[in-house]
Structure formats: C-alpha cells, structure tokens
C-alpha cells in the first residue's frame, strides 16, 4: 500500500515537474498568456460592440458564439482522427497562435458574417490544439504526475480569465476597443514564438526531451556499443541466438524424441545433421541392448 501524502506535497510535486519539464512549462505559460489576452476582448468587448452596432445585438452575438462552437467541434473531430505529430509542440502552438489572429477582425469591420467566419477559424484552431495537448499529456507524462499536471494547467488557465475580464473593463475606458482586439490577435502569436524559443534554447527539442524521459522510465539494458547501427546489429544477433536456443530447448522437452535424452550445451550448438546421425546411432544401440540381454 502506497504511503499517504498531503495535498500540499502533491501540489509542490506538480509544480516541480512542470518547472523541470520544458515543453510542459512552455505550454502552460502560453495557455496562461492566451487566457489573459483573449478572454476579456471575447467576452466583454465583443458583445458590447455588437450590441452598439446592431439593432438585434443579443441575437447576433448568440449566432456568432454558435459559429465559434461549431468551429471548435469540427477542429476537435479532425484533430482526433489524425495521429499525434512527432513535433507536437510547434504544431500545437502554431495552431493556437494562428487561430487567435481572427480575433483582430472586429477592429476592422462590424460585419457579423465576417466576424463569425473568423471566430469559426479561432474555434477550430483551439480545438485542434486542445486535442493534441490532451493526447500528449496522456502519452508522455508519467501516470503518477498526470493528474497533478492536468489540474495545474486547468487551474492556471481558469485563474487568468477573471483577471482578463477585469483588466479589459478597466483598459477599455482609456484604450480604444480596436486596439484591444488587435492585441488579442497578436499577443498569443508573440507568446507562442517566445514559448518555442524558450523550449529549444540551451536544450533539446521537445520531441527529443520526451524520448529522453521515456528512456529514463524504461532504460535500455543492452550493452553499449559504438553508434546506433552497431547497437541495432548486436540486438538483432542476440534475439536470433535466443530464438535458436529456445527452439532447441523446446524440442528437447518433447516426449518420445531421441533429442529428449540428450543434453544440449547452450554455448556450443551442434549442427542439425550431426544430431541426426548421433540420434540414429543411439537408436541402434538401444535396440541391440535388449537383444543382448535376452541372449
């Protein structure tokens, strides 16, 4: 039975794993920056702008949000049918960064159809990134840390949303709404570039770090060799010799075969034709022995 741990200890372990793992840390920080830059303009400024520019503002805003949800559904279904990309961090971060660019459309036009099309692209891109993120967490984060990392990511993302709403309400009194929409579209792109730079500067790429973590959890016990090809040849030769030895030992255990009465040395394997001749001689001796006894 595993020893009981405190909630504070689990929280500190989760923070420590996120801080040590570069690709997890970069993704969580990017999600926090996106929540801070996007939530306020999308939930505070956009309904205010639509209500002030359209007579049936609430209905138009409902349609816009509905299209955003459809885009997210389609993006999630498409990403769920794809295999996980090997370089998952650039794909995920790129989807989020490019998907946030349409948030600047309300700064250029008040046409609800154009805004809806842009938000559909935004929803699809966010859906693609979220599916990749959830899959990568399940595949590459250790099981004992999975719940802590997922909870920490959710906590950080949700924590910045009320702050974004409050800041947007304060800044809208001094800054034009168009400027805030442009910032919502460009800040995630800048944060994504910074995130990718931090994940690769003075270290390995995210995919290389994931493979290194997997090797640490499941170390290779084969003897070291010069180069990857030499190691691969030695491993294949070892597997072939093991299969040959297992086949001989399986034949040795079969009842009624002459080979079952012989001892096979694993270090020196006898050729098949020699075994056949020796087995034949052994059978002849076995037949002559009862005859001599009877005489």
Which key features would you list for this structure?
295 residues; disordered C terminus; mainly alpha; 10 helices
Walk me through the structure.
The protein is mostly helical and 295 residues long. 77% of the residues lie in helices and 0% in strands. It is built from ten helices and no strands. The model is unreliable at 202-209, 214-228, 259-280 and 282-295 (pLDDT under 50).
How does the SSE layout of this entry go?
Layout: H1 7-20, H2 22-53, H3 57-80, H4 88-100, H5 112-140, H6 143-171, H7 177-200, H8 206-217, H9 227-252, H10 272-294
| Radius of gyration, whole Å | 33 Å
Uncertain spans: 202-209, 214-228, 259-280, 282-295
Largest sheet: none
**How many strand elements?**
0
SSE pattern: HHHHHHHHHH
Shape: elongated
Helix/strand structural class? mainly alpha
Helix proportion of residues, in percent? over 70%
Query: Hey, roughly how much beta strand do the residues contain?
Result: under 5%
What's the overall average pLDDT, rounded? 76
Number of helices: 10
Could you give the distance between the termini? 72 Å
Oligomeric status? single chain
Summarize the structure.
This protein has 295 residues and is mainly α. The protein has helices at residues 7-20, 22-53, 57-80, 88-100, 112-140, 143-171, 177-200, 206-217, 227-252, 272-294. The protein contains ten helices and no strands.
């Amino acid at each position: 039975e595993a020893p009981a741990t405190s909630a504070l200890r689990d929280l500190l372990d989760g923070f420590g794993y996120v801080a040590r793992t570069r690709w997890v840390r970069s993704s969580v920080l990017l999600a926090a920056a996106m929540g801070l830059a996007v939530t306020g303009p999308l939930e505070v400024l956009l309904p205010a702008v639509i209500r002030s520019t359209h007579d049936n503002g609430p209905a138009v805003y409902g349609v816009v949000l509905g299209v955003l949800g459809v885009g997210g559904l389609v993006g999630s279904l498409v990403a769920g049918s794809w295999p996980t990309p090997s370089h998952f961090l650039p794909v995920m971060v790129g989807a989020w960064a490019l998907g946030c660019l349409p948030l600047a459309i309300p700064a250029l036009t008040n046409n609800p159809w154009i805004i809806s099309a842009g938000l559909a692209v935004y929803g699809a891109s966010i859906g693609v990134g979220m599916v990749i993120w959830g899959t990568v967490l399940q595949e590459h984060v250790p099981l004992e840390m999975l719940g802590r990392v997922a909870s920490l990511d959710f906590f950080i993302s949700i924590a910045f949303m009320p702050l974004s709403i409050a800041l947007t309400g304060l800044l809208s009194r001094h800054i034009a709404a168009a400027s805030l929409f442009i910032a919502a579209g460009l800040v995630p792109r800048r944060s994504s570039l910074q995130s990718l730079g931090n994940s690769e500067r003075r270290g390995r790429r995210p995919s290389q770090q994931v493979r290194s973590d997997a090797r640490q959890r499941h170390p290779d016990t084969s003897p070291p060799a010069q180069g990857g090809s030499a190691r691969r040849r030695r491993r294949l030769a070892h597997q072939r010799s093991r299969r040959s030895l297992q086949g001989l030992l399986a034949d040795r255990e079969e009842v009624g075969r002459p080979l079952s009465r012989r001892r096979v040395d694993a270090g020196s394997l006898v050729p098949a034709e020699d075994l056949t001749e020796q087995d034949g001689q052994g059978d002849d001796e076995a037949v002559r022995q009862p005859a001599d006894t009877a005489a």
